[in-house]
Amino acid sequence: MDRFYWFNGQCDVNERQLHHQLSVRLYDGDEKTTFDSGLVNLTNLKLIWKDEEQKDRVIAINLDLIKKIEFEGSSMFKSAKITLHLQQAPPDKPSGPKRASSHNYIRLSFRVGGQEAFGKALQNALSQKDWEKIAAAACAPSQPQAPQISHRHVGIGGIERKMQEKYKKTDESINQAFKDLDALIDKAKDMVVLAEKFSSKLQDKKISITDDETVAFKSYLLSMGIDNPVTRDTHGSGVRYHEELAKQLASFLNNIIEDEGGVMTLTDVYCRFNRARGMELISPDDVYNAAKMFEGLRLPMRLRKFDSGVLVIQSLAHTEEEIISKTTKKVIEEGSLTAEELGGILGLAFTLAKERLLLSEKFGKLCRDDSVEGLRFYPNKFLDAGV
Q: Distance (Å, rounded) from C-alpha 129 to C-alpha 50?
């Protein structure tokens, strides 16, 4: 604290405000001081602390005395803090609140938050070192120079020309980016054509390749996302497009949905399907409209909406009774489960795990305990009691 000095409020002509923060307490080392709650102003040259109660009680420290800063996060009983490691005070330092201190660091305690933003501003001020630039400018000999005026950028006409130049450069950058993207799309289309040729040859058995190698090659094509996706260019934009899209979506999900327990959220389906399609992305509405056609096309899955409003795609191989039975069995085995716990056991997303528990509760297989600890489900003992 012996680096601080009483501040009269007069700032340097080159000084500018950077940041401020209310309710900051000062520590001398780890010791509390009487500077308990104040407004801290940060300039490019100083750190100024002003008492929130006694407005004329103001102290300051020059930033050139700060060697290093350290951050300490907040906890339940402690406020976030910034530690400032200091150099020795200069001999000509003005008088301050403390003549001598055994500590070479001070701490700022942020009682109402704001430590992160203030710390970033302080780090930036210390890295800029404006006090050195100001001192160097003051020592440099003054050499008056005649102002150079460019008639090209004078007045409204000059401003308009500068804006036109800026727009021109931006347009050139955008055009170049789209050229690169078009080239990438053309290459991707070439790869699709090549992959289709290989796929047709594999199906016709025109080349010498084993069944295992055929499966492996097709899996590589799927992972690349170029396995002949259905597009509006090839199937139009009407009902036929969504019918073909529904067939491809069902085929794509056939194995994936089994690994996910027979049910997937429509959001998850949309993300996975688009990733597999590569460059031929589709909209959420396309996925939704395609999923609605599963039943009419007699495909082995259905679009379903839970009572909570969550949309899912469910495999017909996993009936509602089977899902309820498996969920109830897990709860009985564990004694009780939350949605997070069930999701961890079955490898399901939280939303699907919660819907399974709610569905089982709806059919009377489970009971809930909704407390401050969260929503937990238990086996329905009334069924065993025959009530």
A: 23
Whether 249 shows a pLDDT value over 50: the answer reads yes
Per-residue pLDDT of 45-76, as tens digits, reads 999 999 888 878 899 999 999 999 998 887 76
CA distances from 39 to 2, 24, 251 (A): 19, 6, 65
CA separation, residue 143 to residues 29, 100, 140 (Å): 47, 44, 9
Structure confidence by residue, pLDDT tens digits, 142-174? 555 555 555 454 566 667 777 777 777 776 666
95 in Cβ contact with 83 (< 8 Å): no
- From first CA to last CA, the distance across the chain in angstroms is 75
Contact, 24 vs 113, CB < 8 A?
A: no
- Give the H or E element holding residue 235: helix 232-235
Task: Indicate whether this model's pTM tops 0.85.
Answer: no
Phi, psi (rounded to 5 degrees) for 51: -60, 135
Residue 84 DSSP SS3: strand
Calculate the alpha carbon distances from 259 to 2, 316, 346, 347 in Å. Answer: 68, 14, 10, 9
Within 8 A by CB and 6+ apart from 316, the residues are 300, 301, 302
Alpha-carbon distances of 176 from 166, 170, 181, 189, 300, rounded to whole Å: 16, 10, 9, 20, 46
Residue 173 CB-half CA count within 13 A: 6
Backbone φ and ψ for 280, nearest 5 degrees, come out as: -90, 75
Phi and psi torsions of 237, nearest 5°: -125, 10
